[in-house]
């Protein structure tokens, strides 16, 4: 079978001199490297299926729990609360899922393989962005399950299939953008536990001080002021309009703008602190 | 394990028309500080292409830190470093294309199988899916890992991990390879295999910069050795230069009948031309050996003179002895020499 073995590439003749080597990574290479890192993350997920616990159990639990606890108090009955609470739970599940992105990155960075990633001629952003691309799977699963539980409980979205899909896509996009905050935390914190702790402190005000579970007009003025600027509120409002009415409101624009700002601020911060670490 | 890929005979810095090739590594006054602690305190290194350069020192001497700075893994706090003439701090991306790094702790992904690891690194280095798979299979074969190709790394022995780690460093066929303590924690047989692998790399024109705690490893592999202590270079030279400073090895001899000691001493003087030193133990002698093989001459002569041997040992100088000679303190960085340590150690060496 020796004849079938491909000959070694001729490194002598074609090897470029140091002056000819690239000084930076091209955008195309960056995308390819990010996808390779995403492939690694999906292999890891397949080996550790417990990574899917938070995104499977939580939608089931939270949707049922919040609907039955707050339904009567907020909307009079559970059925009329569902159109309000499903987009809220969607946003919260996405946020919780992206918190895990940061925690897992921190755990991963303590391993020896990150040394090799740093020593390779690859874009510094690839080891961070790769797992986030793979986590789109987790966000999507969480979002689909939440809607499915809602449907089972009697949620009949007025926006139809397109509206629901639009709402899910927006939620996943928002989760991915906000995950950069937790990724940045992952690169600055010392341990995975501290990432978890800090993330909870960010997560709770962001989700509960929003319109996710209650109408804003029931809140005192000072709190309503914060709730109105909270990007999670804009995401929830946009998703409600999409799912319940099938309309694309200005809230979608605000939500996307908020997400873009978060990525623009936290992605460079994360790459910079990752480059400095160790 | 037949041939191992590496950059070929001409390293990129090496030009046929230039009389002095660009050094593979040139470092001047390298400094690394952690807060008020200076881990690396002004180290100069120059490694010629095709050379195996050993950085020898005890734990905590700054070997790994130096290597990490040269490999762009750790920022340089002071001084300058070049790899094949490319400034490490200014153009890290270019340097990363010229070096392969194998760390002290195997830097492969525990969650992936051996083959998946190599495919991942191949993809990251710009190979397409098919080429990455082919390279992975090829390297696994060369490093005797094909049977373990689909096993998770967590089931690998220490030696297999190191081999996989080294294989991963060779995917891009880099002209310069950094090996951080390549055999620490390996059993003697695996250690010997690792040495053979490193020698093969050099035969194919690779330049190797390795760190080690073992004098015999540096001696076996390196063309040139720098001894590092507390962040400073305390000596540099060929293995022979260094051993010349401490004596190659010592013959420790004890005769059965203590009254034969004088005769045995005279015999050693005659055969080796070195003055034997009597140790406190009765009938025991220590003689410095420039060549360990000369011990056999002494043994034959003893047999001819019918002097009975109680015990005989040929001891190589230990890293500790090298250190003591070069720095005046032992290799343990936490202990400074105390008055009672010095005479003991001097006696052992004499």
From TrEMBL, chain A:
GO biological process, one term: response to antibiotic
Keywords from the UniProt entry: Antibiotic resistance, Cell membrane, Membrane, Transmembrane, Transmembrane helix, Transport
ABC transmembrane type-2 domain mapped to chain residues: 50-277
Any matching Pfam family: ABC2_membrane
Membrane spanning stretches: 52-74, 80-103, 136-155, 161-185, 197-214, 252-271
Principal place of residence: membrane
Gene Ontology molecular-function annotations: ABC-type transporter activity
Domain of life of the organism encoding this protein: Bacteria
Assigned GO CC terms: ATP-binding cassette (ABC) transporter complex
Keyword Cell membrane in annotation: yes
Membrane topology listed for this record: Multi-pass membrane protein
Subcellular location(s) per record: Cell membrane; Membrane
Entry similarity comment: Belongs to the ABC-2 integral membrane protein family.
Protein name: Transport permease protein
Source organism per UniProt: Nocardioides acrostichi
UniProtKB/TrEMBL annotation, chain B:
Record-annotated membrane-spanning stretches: none
The entry's keywords: Antibiotic resistance, ATP-binding, Cell membrane, Membrane, Nucleotide-binding, Translocase, Transport
Segments forming domain ABC transporter: 25-255
Annotated GO biological process: daunorubicin transport; doxorubicin transport; response to antibiotic
Membrane topology: Peripheral membrane protein
PROSITE patterns noted in UniProt: ABC_TRANSPORTER_1, ABC_TRANSPORTER_2
Biased composition annotated in UniProt, kind: Polar residues: 1-10
Keyword Translocase: yes
Disordered: annotated span: 1-23, 328-350
Location (main, coarse): membrane
NCBIfam families given in the database record: drrA (TIGR01188)
Protein name per its UniProtKB record: ATP-binding cassette domain-containing protein
